[in-house]
Amino acid sequence: MVPVVAAIAAGNGVVIKPSELAPATSALIARLVPEYLDSEVIRVVEGGTAVTQDLMAQGFDHALFTGGTEIGRKIMAAAAPTLTPVTLELGGKSPVVVLADADLDVAARRIAWIKMLNSGQTCIAPDYVLADRTIAAELTDKIVATIAAFRAEEKDPSLRIVNERQFDRLVSLISATSGTVVTGGGSDRAVLRIEPTVIVNPAGDDPVMSDEIFGPILPIITVDSPDAAVAFVNARPKPLALYVFTASQRVARDLVDRMPSGGAVVNHVAVHCLVPQLPFGGVGASGMGAYHGKWGFEALSHRRAVLAKTTTLDVKLMYPPYTDRAIRLMRRVM
């Protein structure tokens, strides 16, 4: 609801179209919004693709979409006939680069925590890890141990996936991988649950490395140097977020500068979205535009130039016909 707050603050009316892929959440929003908020200003419209297309055809002052890159392209295309400006918060494969001097215990906890948050189904979840060769095995062991510790008191260590289509897609990524599954890998379609899974060194063209994972699967890839990590990331579409773990602020800044992304965090994962003073958004295939805090207010309002002039002084020399004397005087003034 963060974009709704920004839109209302900027003086707009709002139409909320929840995702049809999360019907329980959609129904809850449709029930609670009119109960607690002004229905003359905020409306909720439920439905599938056809409803979204009908809404976009109406020609709004602005459309903000959160979702995958492919659907983002369709939203942008649907906005084109009415020249509706769009903010697209998409996704992508947000990498974590862990250098040899990083605090591995902290890195393991923070990576595992955010990766398992909402079963890995968040747009800024760490998608894969690039670990320096000298610490890759140790980091992998610590992440595996951390996952086990985080799930130790749960009756079922596996995590719930949003629907059957996403479940089948994630299971196929695990079964088709060329890497080594070092923990997890199990699943139960009857209850749509998948174990947190770590895959070591899948090939660069492995299915799990091709598209955004959006689930509790974490590839860990060994790299020989920071330069190799930069080359790996930059060979792919620009991600929504970039995470760098290192003890050196100078090295961190250098790496952030060399790898374009929507946002970046040093020595943590995803927490930049909690800071309202920072813009949040993607770049390239991970989106366009930014919001949160004042950035949302500015994105969802129009900065209009207005100039008021007095009528007290109105020099007639400014108007035609222009005599030679008038031209000489104006040249002196200008």
From TrEMBL:
Aldehyde dehydrogenase domain span: 4-305
Keywords: Oxidoreductase
Cellular component annotations (GO), alphabetically ordered: cytoplasm
PANTHER family (alphabetical): ALDEHYDE DEHYDROGENASE (PTHR43570), ALDEHYDE DEHYDROGENASE TYPE III, ISOFORM Q (PTHR43570:SF16)
Oxidoreductase listed as a keyword: yes
Protein name: Aldehyde dehydrogenase domain-containing protein
Catalytic machinery residues: 89
GO BP field: aldehyde metabolic process
Similarity comment: family membership: Belongs to the aldehyde dehydrogenase family.
Transmembrane segments: none
Pfam families for the chain: Aldedh (PF00171)
Molecular function (Gene Ontology), one example: aldehyde dehydrogenase (NAD+) activity
Annotated InterPro entries: Ald_DH/histidinol_DH (IPR016161), Ald_DH_C (IPR016163), Ald_DH_CS_GLU (IPR029510), Ald_DH_N (IPR016162), Aldehyde_DH_dom (IPR015590), Aldehyde_DH_NAD(P) (IPR012394)
Keyword Oxidoreductase: yes
Species assigned in the record: Mycolicibacterium sarraceniae
